[in-house]
């Protein structure tokens, strides 16, 4: 099948498939005229990559997972370890987002949101607002 068909069946853009080929994640055959010729095994790899990336695995993690996917003698413990590491990374990102939400909420609380030009949000973004004062302001609001 050609790259357009592989794209349609895998759910990946043609540009992404070309990139995956460039970095060695897929290696389609080339016909005599130089066109890519994807076989079923290539399509399975592309689907595997699409799903792995949709779950947040990095390119390097996908490379490792693909290696395990193709190794019939793999230990499932290896796959589980990679996935547990991803869960820890997701948990860390969730905490970062919670912290970010807290700061943004404090900024919104500190801002009067009226017709006056002074705004604690702008002050904070410009580095002119003291975070300790912001905490005090938000407690008083």
Automatic annotation (TrEMBL):
<dbReference type="Pfam" id="PF09278">
    <property type="entry name" value="MerR-DNA-bind"/>
</dbReference>
<feature type="domain" description="HTH merR-type">
    <location>
        <begin position="1"/>
        <end position="68"/>
    </location>
</feature>
<feature type="coiled-coil region">
    <location>
        <begin position="80"/>
        <end position="107"/>
    </location>
</feature>
<dbReference type="GO" id="GO:0003677">
    <property type="term" value="F:DNA binding"/>
</dbReference>
<dbReference type="GO" id="GO:0005507">
    <property type="term" value="F:copper ion binding"/>
</dbReference>
<keyword id="KW-0804">Transcription</keyword>
<keyword id="KW-0805">Transcription regulation</keyword>
<dbReference type="InterPro" id="IPR047057">
    <property type="entry name" value="MerR_fam"/>
</dbReference>
<dbReference type="Pfam" id="PF00376">
    <property type="entry name" value="MerR"/>
</dbReference>
<dbReference type="GO" id="GO:0045893">
    <property type="term" value="P:positive regulation of DNA-templated transcription"/>
</dbReference>
<keyword id="KW-0238">DNA-binding</keyword>
<feature type="region of interest" description="Disordered">
    <location>
        <begin position="121"/>
        <end position="141"/>
    </location>
</feature>
<dbReference type="InterPro" id="IPR015358">
    <property type="entry name" value="Tscrpt_reg_MerR_DNA-bd"/>
</dbReference>
<protein>
    <submittedName>
        <fullName>Copper export regulator</fullName>
    </submittedName>
</protein>
<dbReference type="GO" id="GO:0005737">
    <property type="term" value="C:cytoplasm"/>
</dbReference>
<dbReference type="InterPro" id="IPR000551">
    <property type="entry name" value="MerR-type_HTH_dom"/>
</dbReference>
<keyword id="KW-0175">Coiled coil</keyword>
<dbReference type="GO" id="GO:0003700">
    <property type="term" value="F:DNA-binding transcription factor activity"/>
</dbReference>
<dbReference type="InterPro" id="IPR009061">
    <property type="entry name" value="DNA-bd_dom_put_sf"/>
</dbReference>
<feature type="compositionally biased region" description="Basic and acidic residues">
    <location>
        <begin position="126"/>
        <end position="141"/>
    </location>
</feature>
<dbReference type="InterPro" id="IPR011789">
    <property type="entry name" value="CueR"/>
</dbReference>
<keyword id="KW-0963">Cytoplasm</keyword>
